[in-house]
């Protein structure tokens, strides 16, 4: 265990070193874009929603309705982004994982380091975004800041399975599929922009399968003060399951790919 | 003949070589047609999400001329314009950068009789063909969802090809200035605000003076105006200005791109 | 006779600069139709820069260059239509299969689809890749990629074939296979221009070559001529034990100086240039020297290069 932590830390250091070079570029996708979404949808479109009556939203302003959902969606997008191309690069293009395995690091350490770095990216980006949301007045109650750990959890819930998927791909065209049929529909239909009860039943059920819906629902209830403890525990358990199974899959995938 | 033309005319005029690059891309996508088709779904997902979900919250829009329009019918043409932009940008930036810097594809092409201009026209033609297929499918979805109210909508397809041309040309020109993948974040920085604010989700009249003016000069806004006019049948001669804007943008982009490609690859 | 020869590549005072750095510093040469012409030189000599200018993909910085009688600045496409190019780094289309790489490349030359298919099958046969036709390029070994690149350069039936380091990085077996293919092309009358930093490759393949170093041509001629002009018939290599230092080499060289026409002192051995190597060996022993190893061999282009530049080709 101590070894795993130490080795994972070394991997994490590697990623941090790389990130020191590239962080400026990621600022744009990490905060600027979600912020623009918040402005365009929450404030711009929100003015039309609010003047049309917000009964369907339980009387909250559209900005406060979508802000927690956008936070969770941002976490998902960053996590998927970091678990796709960088992982394939390590396995196939630049092959830096292979050189790491040539040191005392084991495939599991590589995975832990990679996931640790993704957690760092998700957490820092979402923290900044949360500050912006608060400044916009997007949180209804202070409990809304608990959206941050929820965002981290949903990021980790998807990072593992996606990284595992990256290990079985021959080329990056599979990622286009992840984004087109995973990330984009999740973003659009997981209740961030409107209550999923408006969807036809069968799509509504698909939304409940998506980890993003659980994160959106939980962080919104926290912010709006409408938490139902039992449902909240259900959300958490579901996300944790994704995280644990996903990490296990990723370790398995990396081990298979890196040492036969 | 061709060589004399090349000597006399500063911009090479022969388009012919580009068709082999289209053929090459066709060969490639014939194998991964699932990926190809999947590109069509993204704008449709947006349309469905808005049409089913958000539209319910927003209700109908009353436009500046007093006409009432369902929210989905208001947003759909903007999605059409945006997806034409996104497809063209993707094909002309990421794809071309990869082929130029990593696959060295153009190095091998330029060792044949093909010239930088052929590469530029070929890649852009391919991007437009692909975009046209997606747009046509999207227009059919709009029709099925009852979001088209005029025969003018027949012009929505050529309009989206024009939007694609403008962005593919500009995207390719920009790509020749890119140093690394990180620079593409700046492409996102230009594209996303346009997608969100170019009168896509609500009318341009919502904005106060200076901001409205800023929105009105963005290229995507021109496309949104064209598509919305055609899908609602609210047409007029003023549309020509928007079309000319896009045509000029694409042509300038192509010219810069082929000049720069020559400089970069023929060292 | 010499007036009858057709110069496919005519070069006078040719220069190439990248910014302030001059990679090719004024070279003169002609490549005649039907010959196999070589550039022999170490890394950085300016071989690839010259090849790219001849390939009409790199603008000339100074001097005259005519390829197939045409000026590359004005008639690039017309020139390239008649060239086959195998660049130093493989630029295969990694998104396509082996066979598609050939067919689509033919299309870039404006060949009909039927013609492309026919040429592709012939060439796959020629470079022994028929079984790999449907495989993605990524899955090929280095030697196979090289063979495919050469096949690709032949799709358009070029008048002139440019091969930039065709066998660098390949294992000996793959190299010999490639040499065999190139030799058959030469027999078939294709004009070849080859760059290499392997002297054995230059000797095997080239009718005539230039030795290039630091952007300049140091010597020109057939391999036999160059060896005759710049070296002796035989070379005696003397190796002393690992405890003998470079300084000792100099001292040792002094003791055998008179045995050879010329002596080269390398870090690990002494080279005695003489027409009778065995005789030199006998003399060395007679003088009480005890080399750990002795080798008598023919002179090669390596020796020519050493003579011309004071350095070895591959280091
Ligand atoms: N595109 C370039 N930009 C700057 N310098 C270059 C470029 N290409 C080659 N050089 C330099 O020119 C010199 C000659 O290179 P090259 O022609 O590739 O030699 P060779 O093929 O004999 O190894 C080298 O010092 C190399 O670094
Ligand atoms: Mg070279």
TrEMBL record, chain A:
**Which superkingdom is the protein from?**
Bacteria
Q: Which InterPro entries match?
A: ABC2_TM, ABC2_TM_bact-type, ABC_2_transport, Nod_factor_ABC_transporter
Q: Which GO terms describe its biological process?
A: response to antibiotic
The UniProt keyword set, sorted, is: Antibiotic resistance, Cell membrane, Membrane, Transmembrane, Transmembrane helix, Transport
Q: Where is the ABC transmembrane type-2 domain?
A: 25-257
Regarding the membrane, this protein is recorded as: Multi-pass membrane protein
Residue runs in coiled coils: none
Stored Pfam families: ABC2_membrane (PF01061)
Q: Which GO CC terms are listed, alphabetically?
A: ATP-binding cassette (ABC) transporter complex
Location(s), subcellular: Cell membrane; Membrane
Q: Which GO terms describe its molecular function?
A: ABC-type transporter activity
List residues traversing the bilayer: 30-49, 61-85, 115-139, 145-166, 178-196, 230-251
Q: Family, per the entry?
A: Belongs to the ABC-2 integral membrane protein family.
Sorted alphabetically, which PANTHER family does this protein's record hold? NODULATION PROTEIN J
- This chain belongs to the protein called Transport permease protein
Species of origin reads Kribbella sindirgiensis
UniProtKB/TrEMBL annotation, chain B:
Record-given protein name: Transport permease protein
UniProt topology in membrane: Multi-pass membrane protein
What are the entry keywords?
A: Antibiotic resistance, Cell membrane, Membrane, Transmembrane, Transmembrane helix, Transport
Does the entry feature the keyword Membrane, yes or no?
Answer: yes
| Gene Ontology biological process | response to antibiotic
- Entry-linked InterPro entries: ABC2_TM, ABC2_TM_bact-type, ABC_2_transport, Nod_factor_ABC_transporter
Q: Which organism is it from?
A: Kribbella sindirgiensis
Q: Which GO terms describe its cellular component?
A: ATP-binding cassette (ABC) transporter complex
Q: Where in the cell is it found?
A: Cell membrane; Membrane
Please name the GO terms that the record assigns under molecular function. ABC-type transporter activity
Give residue ranges for domain ABC transmembrane type-2.
Answer: 34-264
Family per UniProt?
Answer: Belongs to the ABC-2 integral membrane protein family.
Q: Which residues form the signal peptide?
A: none
Membrane-crossing segments per the record: 33-57, 69-90, 124-145, 151-174, 186-204, 235-257
Q: Which PROSITE patterns match?
A: ABC_TM2
Principal location listed in the UniProt entry: membrane
Statement: the UniProt record of this protein carries the keyword Transmembrane = yes
Automatic annotation (TrEMBL), chain C:
Pfam families, per this entry? ABC_tran (PF00005)
Alphabetical GO CC annotations of the entry are: plasma membrane
Question: Which molecular function GO terms apply here?
Answer: ATP binding; ATP hydrolysis activity
- State the PROSITE patterns in the record: ABC_TRANSPORTER_1, ABC_TRANSPORTER_2
What UniProt keywords are attached to this protein's entry? Antibiotic resistance, ATP-binding, Cell membrane, Membrane, Nucleotide-binding, Translocase, Transport
Q: Which SUPFAM superfamilies does this entry report, sorted A to Z?
A: P-loop containing nucleoside triphosphate hydrolases
Concerning InterPro entries, the annotation shows: AAA+_ATPase, ABC_transporter-like_ATP-bd, ABC_transporter-like_CS, ABC_transporter_ATP-binding, P-loop_NTPase
Q: Where in the cell is it found?
A: Cell membrane
Q: Which segments constitute the ABC transporter domain?
A: 9-239
One Gene Ontology term from the biological process aspect of the record? response to antibiotic
Q: Which domain of life is it from?
A: Bacteria
Where it mainly occurs, coarsely classed, is membrane
Q: How does it sit in the membrane?
A: Peripheral membrane protein
Identify its protein family: Belongs to the ABC transporter superfamily.
Q: What is this protein called?
A: ATP-binding cassette domain-containing protein
In which organism is this protein found? Kribbella sindirgiensis
